[in-house]
Amino acid sequence: MPASPTLEDVARAAGVSRATVSRVINGIRNVDPVIQETVRRAIADTGYVPNRAARSLVTRRTGAIALVVSGAGEESGESPFHSQVFADPFFGRVASGVVGFLRPRGIHPILMFAETAEARAQVIAYLRQGNADGAILVSTQAEDPLPRLLVEASLPAVLFARPAEPIPISYVDVAHRTGAKLAADHLVARGRLRVATIAGPLNVPAAQDRLSGFRDAMAAHGHPYIPCAEGDFTLDSGEAAMERLLAEYPGLDGVFIANDLMAQGALPVLRHHGRRVPEDVAVVGFDDSSAATASRPPLTTIRHPVEDMAAEMARLLAAHIDDPDQPVTSIIFEPSLVVRDST
Amino acid sequence: MPASPTLEDVARAAGVSRATVSRVINGIRNVDPVIQETVRRAIADTGYVPNRAARSLVTRRTGAIALVVSGAGEESGESPFHSQVFADPFFGRVASGVVGFLRPRGIHPILMFAETAEARAQVIAYLRQGNADGAILVSTQAEDPLPRLLVEASLPAVLFARPAEPIPISYVDVAHRTGAKLAADHLVARGRLRVATIAGPLNVPAAQDRLSGFRDAMAAHGHPYIPCAEGDFTLDSGEAAMERLLAEYPGLDGVFIANDLMAQGALPVLRHHGRRVPEDVAVVGFDDSSAATASRPPLTTIRHPVEDMAAEMARLLAAHIDDPDQPVTSIIFEPSLVVRDST
DNA sequence: GAGGCGTTGGAGAGCGCTCTCCCGGCATGC
DNA sequence: GCATGCCGGGAGAGCGCTCTCCAACGCCTC
Fold first, then answer.
1. Could you tell me if A92 and B85 are in contact, meaning their C-beta atoms sit under 8 angstroms apart?
2. Are B66 and B277 in contact (CB under 8 A)?
3. What is the DSSP letter of B231?
4. The CATH number of the domain where A108 resides is what?
5. What angle do the packed helices B260-272 and B235-248 form, to 10 degrees?
6. Distance A44 CA to C7 C1' (A)
């Protein structure tokens, strides 16, 4: 393999100095248009590609950021964590939003998984070694030690969703309570009187907010008691929770389910127990993930502007990287109701 | 932010030369155990972390490989490609297998998407800049130009699945025809006589092999004609294909569906048309993805050893990187039948 | 026409690391 | 006793790039 050409080679080919070629490439300062053209041709002729390692060494920038998916690695089975992540369309939307912001800027997202203590340590080491300039963190788990570790290492980072413990780190989130209220209002507008809910794991702030927001909104409509079954945001847990709910409250005519994946699990259970959706039981999900459209019937749900939120995370992170003294901030997005056939 | 310590700092703290510290870190040559201990303490004291850019610059290695998911970016909607990828549990299994091999070796996988010509160019540029030492490529699309581009740039790469056009590149694959035969044998063993199939997109070699393998095996059992509807490996396409098949062959009692995701789409259609699964119609999928277990009833399917295959890709790539003169090879894995409730 | 100023290109010093030399010291062989 | 070999450590040359100086060269002004 022929050694790839260096700046020096291009400079020689163009009959100028290394510095001038560098200036042309990086668009810094004025360079005579004629010389610029000569240099560009030399670059094309030699097939020159800048060496990132050399550039990083001096700029102390990598042009890459880590997109970390963090959570509890279930110890059972053979690393089901990655499968879990890839089975959840939510991450696709996050990736879309992040890539949408970063790609035009030539910044590369690097996907990393931090499901074990070892993996977390690797993520921190990776960042400290200067493989990436910062991290976007999406946790699937409430008590995630990673945000704290990032703050302690004073690495630029932005979270998706408010951390369970208060630490000085920027995050974006959605107004969960507002979303839950939209669901409540909609169920009431559909004339549902015996409404229940399936919540997410209650140690997750988002799950708490959705539950309490829903209960408060229903209370405002004159329904002081809303039965609840707890799931853990997985399809299977939604199935199980729906079974429990039906066993205990066979007369229910409306369910608010804290995410679409659990709702997708719940729908076949309702059908299996002879309930038609939406005629007998109206179902409202949360997230507007692709699970919502994959369900039969397609789900009425609360739409997170996930792509926008992810893009905002990328923007925030980029700002933190450019100016480390940037104060930490939180940005809260407003959800919206998407009506489909399940209500 | 205090500048992070360099080798020089550690060397000074330990009272030795840079070279010695480097030798301790990289475990090269013998270093006096006493000095080794001193150096280690100095590293711990200073909180030293090697700078990867500097190291890469001289070793011409990054310790990272790109995990590229390549395919056609549907132009409709807002970048649905990432969502598509993240909705398919198959990629989770690939990631698991790859990470399982790489993590113990301290190599980082970098996930990249190559759904447009621009993104493909970025992937190539990324590798040529020396951001990663090689690429593992998983295509969702038949005519993918990326393998050729990689070969032309003489970048180390390994594919998942045989490329549609013959090019000198290593790949791993599964014996699709054997898998299809397993499905055929099983359906026949279950006493099914009016069997049909839903195929994948027929420009994909894997889809071709599954279809022809199935037809050949059924022919060997005395069923010369097997009706087929073509899908594109998505849930929706499975739904549509099942509708077509039922409309044309209402009497069918067994279906082999070329992947689990399409099967997941097909099951509700069968149910909707009053067919019980498996009593009236037996369904066999392919992949043993988590869609197989998420389906109701859970799917009998053909199990790819995807994790093993992915790990093997990583191993092959590592070998290619270590020795660029390594000849290209292909490794074919044997699938197996997993019986669940759909047959 | 001389001095000042803005513009443009070159020289060269590193960034932090690895790795090849080389050298000193000690055990060994004749 | 001296030459020989080996082992452990240091010196220093880069890897390919950026970026700060600095020099050269107009051009304007007085």
1. yes
2. no
3. -
4. 3.40.50.2300
5. 50
6. 27
In the 8-state DSSP scheme, what is residue B333?
Answer: E
- A168/B195 Cα distance (integer angstroms): 62
Cβ proximity of A227 and A204 under 8 Å? no
pLDDT at A131 over 60: yes
Residue A34: pLDDT band (50, 70, 90) is confident
Asked if residue A1 keeps its beta carbon closer than 7 A to nucleic acid strand C, the reply is no
pLDDT by residue (tens digit) across A141-193? 778 899 999 999 989 999 998 988 889 999 999 999 999 999 999 999 999 99
Q: Are residues B180 and B298 in the same domain?
A: yes
Report, as an integer, the average pLDDT of B314-332: 93
Residue B151: count of CB within 10 angstroms of its CB:
15
Q: Which residue is it, tokens 């951001």?
A: B131
C-alpha to C-alpha distances, A107 to A58, A282, B126, nearest whole angstrom: 18, 44, 10
Per-residue pLDDT of B329-338, as tens digits, reads 999 999 999 9
pLDDT for res A124:
92
Burial of B27 (0-12, 13-18, 19+ CB in 10 A): exposed
A193 and A124 together in one domain: no
For residues B119 and B166, membership in a common domain is answered with: yes
In this structure, what are the phi and psi dihedrals at residue A105, rounded to the nearest 5 degrees? -95, 5
Interface of B with A in 206-225 (CB under 8 A): none
Long-range contacts of A116-123 (CB under 8 A, 24+ apart): A116/A73, A118/B103, A119/A73, A119/B103, A120/A70, A120/A145, A120/A146, A120/A149, A122/B103, A122/B108, A123/A66, A123/A68
Tell me, yes or no, whether B170 and B319 share the same domain.
yes
Answer whether B92 sits within 8 Å of A82, measured CB to CB. Answer: yes
Average pLDDT estimate for A296-316: 94
Say yes or no for a CB contact (<8 Å) between B91 and A95: no
User: Per DSSP, what are the bridge partners of residue A172?
Assistant: A160, A331
Q: Is the pLDDT of residue A251 over 80?
A: yes
Q: Considering only CB atoms, which chain A residues are within 8 Å of B290?
A: 83, 87
Please report which confidence band the pLDDT of residue B76 belongs to, taking 50, 70 and 90 as the band edges.
Answer: very low
Residue with the two structure tokens 């067994």: B254
Q: How far is CA A192 from CA A183, A215, B73, B259, B275, in A?
A: 12, 14, 41, 40, 32
- CB-nearest to B86 from A92, A126, A307 is A92
One domain for residues B227 and B264 = yes
Task: Give the pTM.
Answer: 0.84
Q: For residues B96 and B310, is the Cβ–Cβ distance under 8 A?
A: yes
Judging by DSSP bridges, how do beta strands A254-257 and A228-230 pair with one another? unpaired
Nucleotides of D under 7 A from a protein CB: 7-20
pLDDT, one tens digit per residue, over B245-257 is: 999 999 999 999 9
The confidence score (pLDDT) of residue A8 equals: 87
Enclosing domain of residue A17: 7-50
Q: Report chain B's C-alpha Rg in angstroms.
A: 25
Is the predicted pLDDT of residue B186 greater than 50, yes or no? Answer: yes
DSSP 8-state class, residue B16:
S
Rounded to 5°, the CA angle B292-B224-B283 comes to: 15
How close does chain A come to B215, measured CA to CA in Å? Answer: 30
Total of domains in chain B: 3
